[in-house]
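tool_call predict_complex ligand=magnesium ion
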Amino acid sequence: MTTGKINVSVENIFPLIKKFLYSDHEIFLRELVSNATDATLKLKHLTSIGEAKVEYGNPIIEVKIDKEGKKLHIIDQGLGMTAEEVEKYINQIAFSGAEEFLEKYKDSAKDSGVIGHFGLGFYSAFMVASKVEIITKSYKDEPAAHWSCDGSPEFTLEPHDKTDRGTEIILHIAEDSLEFLEEYRIRELLTKYNKFMPVPIKFGTKKEALPKPEDAPEDYKTEYVDVDNIINNPTPAWTKQPSDLKEDDYKDFYRELYPMQFEEPLFNIHLNVDYPFNLTGILYFPKLDANLQVQKDKIQLYQNQVFVTDNVEGIVPEFLVMLRGVIDSPDIPLNVSRSYLQADGNVKKISNYITRKVADKLKSLFNENRQDFESKWNDIKIVLEYGMLSEPKFYEKAGDFVLYPSVDGKYYTLAELKEAISANQTDKNGKLVVLYASNKDAQHGYIEIAKEKGYEVLLLDSPIVSHLIQKLESDNENLTFVRVDSDHIDKLIQKEDTQISKLSEEETTKLKTVLEEIVPKTNYSVQLEPMDSTAAPFIITQPEFMRRMKEMSQTGGGMFGMGNFPEMYNLVVNTNSDLATTILTTEDKSVQESLVKQALDLAKISQGLLKGEELTAFVKRSFELIK
Ligand code: ADP
Ligand code: MG
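tool_result ok
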């Protein structure tokens, strides 16, 4: 039996590990199962290159709770360690055997999937254990070794009579960590961290029905047997080649990933790159709620099939965090506890790669089946519009597939739209005017008037659309967007021909005075316009600029403080309407007043502005008029 001191410079490193190194105690299991997996994968590699002349077989890893003994066992059938190797790999803290292995077998083992990295994982066991034992038998022809350490720097190392190859780690769970002796807790951890690890992991047994025999009697009762309960899928979809997967395989994997998610994803994007960094994964576009509630099913980050985190901030471009799926990359630089991303050039490259892949996929979906793409537009537009605003690289590509739907359900790309409306919607200054509505019902009257003129009206109704419009205008010379209710029709798109007013200048001034006396100045500015005599006599409009700035500042951005500006409207009165003449020529002041009020209320109704007390007064007044 040997005894000795663990080779560390700090006198007592264990309290340090326990307190500071890993903020999250539960990760000890991830680390130990990762080591067991590494031991198995290393053996696989050594047998495959003929360096280990043993039968590889079908090794599994077992996690076992001994509740009475207050012990947790992690048992593998991997390459094991000789006593000498225990000294080397275990007693030297911060020396990573995994890194050494990858270095030694540089050429052949780079795709072996070996996980270990910092040489600290094993010691995370002391976060939850008061004593740790290792019983290990190497694949080499040497006796097994038994290492034991109670958390002080002193350890013991002696021979052991274990004969089968592999390693058993025994954790004597500390009094403050007894939760890790509960079956549900261990199952929870295995499901969270190890669900897709590459070596089968057994946790207990489960009952499985035997197939019904051919000659089963009438009253045959299904028989059950105990079989290993394997908690992981060692070959998840993202580790396979896209060409080996069908549409249904992607959907099945989505369900495997999010068992509580019943909605099908809209489409998926298979990521697969090995230069200049290594990254695989599958991203899914989910059907998003309009209110974008805080999502619980997030993109999961893995390293060599070990779950690391579902905080992918920085790795995935911000506009894609609403997506779901997995990303697996050994090249994402994380700190020792793998909970923080370290600033690194690779990270930006990864994020750019993801942006590009998503854009390429959208483009090919658009090209392959435009109709299907259009049918999904409503569910994906927010993500794409947000991407255009936040990611210049995405914006550059967006022209190929971003759509602008009309109120009648026709979908245009920006180029198609420009082409379609240029003849009819270019104003006298050569500006191409895009008309849009944000709500088909609320702006119904305005939409109809525009359509009568043969104008195309878009339906742009996502919450950030004002920002997008602003950007499109600044990037496309001579393109301007106006909402249908932002002015009267002749002003929305100004053409050369001007309407002649029926009223003289003097009459117009008089009418304006009359109107301004009755219409509340605080909310409305009166604007007299000679329009078609059949057009509505009174309409309420809200100038595009003010409204857009208000909207932008409400959704973050725009001009500072604009969100708090009062609502200001224009009351546009058609001087060529019969009503305008009637108001002007009515001698009786009170009749004049009620005409104006009634007309104003009607205009308000078509803007959805008449409510409460005013609505009640309007209804009452209207009944008086028809009695
Ligand atoms: P890392 O995994 O980063 O190399 P760890 O502290 O997790 O560091 O483990 C240290 C070393 O101990 C491993 O590299 C490996 O050589 C050895 N080791 C740990 N667990 C096992 C095991 N179950 N079987 C064989 N070797 C192991
Ligand atoms: Mg490790």
